[in-house]
Specification:
Structural class: alpha+beta
Number of strands: 10
Distance between the termini: 34 Å
Largest sheet: 5 strands, antiparallel
Shape: globular
Radius of gyration: 19 Å
Strand content: 5-15%
Order of helices and strands: HEEEHEEEHHHEEEEHHHHH
Length: 302
């Protein structure tokens, strides 16, 4: 993470709005969350301001969301944050920023998904609606949506480090899942629209059920296995088969094998970030560890 030297405050957000979108500047402003790439500030009851703050690519991702999410959102069955305004770089803040709709709910890393029946239906319906062939000029993922082999070095390093820290109790089973996924035939269909970053912090819940999906910064086109990995990452135990029965079209065995490999990558990332949070390291988020460990247990048991 490369945190900006600019301190983002409610006063700065209001000044940016007064400069560029004065009709919104008098709304109440309060911090919503500091994410991996962006800060989110609530703007009244129904809007939010998202400003890049912690990674070099954050601004580019926000512009991508502003371009593509309004095109896709009308066909999605779950609420998503829809960009409404684009803020231009200025002397006050040298990066683009956006105003989006606010989606109510609590992130699933803090308010876990416990209602399997409702959440299976919600997630399967969402991905069925999203996974359609993308146009030729659709964005390319940041290492997502392509062949799994590109992640082999990262997998080896993360598995070794997590095992050495005592965070992985059965590394042989984890490696077996990954090697099976690598051996599966690659995706040979058209590049499909992908959310690209479906993990518990990017899915909202209410009363234990999925009620929204946020953060489309990694929206891209590619292999649907990357999103289908969320069946293990997000859903409660013993619901994966129900998910794949509900998702359409039913994925072939090779896609399911690749999806398990993608899920292992996502689980290892969550364990790494969770461990860093427990140790107080920059970029660490302690709430990411428990759901990632649960996902890894589900993968090994499946």
């Amino acid at each position: 993470m490369t945190h900006t030297d600019i301190e983002v405050t409610a006063e700065l957000v209001r000044e940016l709005l007064r400069d560029q979108h004065p009709d919104l500047a008098d709304r109440p402003i309060q911090l919503g969350a500091r994410g991996w790439d962006n800060q989110i500030w609530r703007l009244g009851a129904d809007l939010a301001v998202r400003l890049p703050w912690a990674t070099d690519s954050a601004a580019e991702l926000l512009v991508k969301e502003h371009t593509w999410v309004p095109v896709l959102a009308p066909n999605l069955p779950l609420p998503v944050p829809i960009p409404q305004r684009l803020g231009a770089p200025s002397e006050r803040f040298p990066h683009p920023w956006i105003v989006t709709t606010w989606v109510p709910g609590e992130p699933a890393d803090r308010a876990p998904i416990t209602d399997g029946v409702e959440s299976v239906t919600a997630l399967a319906s969402f991905l069925t609606a999203l996974h359609h062939p993308a146009p030729e000029h659709a964005p390319v993922g940041r290492g997502r949506g392509g062949p799994l082999a590109a992640g082999s070095q990262w997998f080896d390093r993360q598995l070794t480090e997590a095992t050495d820290r005592g965070s992985i109790s059965d590394p042989d089973s984890v490696r077996a899942i990954w090697e099976d996924a690598l051996a599966a035939p690659e995706w040979d269909g058209p590049p499909m629209w992908l959310h690209g970053d479906l993990h518990p912090a990017n899915v909202l819940t209410e009363n234990g059920a999925i009620c929204g999906v946020i953060d489309f910064g990694d929206l891209c086109a590619g292999d649907p296995a990357y999103d289908l990995a969320s069946a293990w990452i997000l859903l409660p135990d013993n619901t994966v088969e129900q998910f794949f029965d509900s998702y359409a079209p039913s994925p072939d065995p090779a896609t399911r094998r690749r999806a398990r490999g993608c899920a292992v990558l996502r689980a290892l990332a969550g364990i790494q970030i969770g461990d860093a949070g427990v140790r107080g390291l920059p970029g660490g988020k302690p709430t990411w560890g428990p759901p990632a460990q649960a996902a890894l247990r589900r993968l090994i048991a499946s």
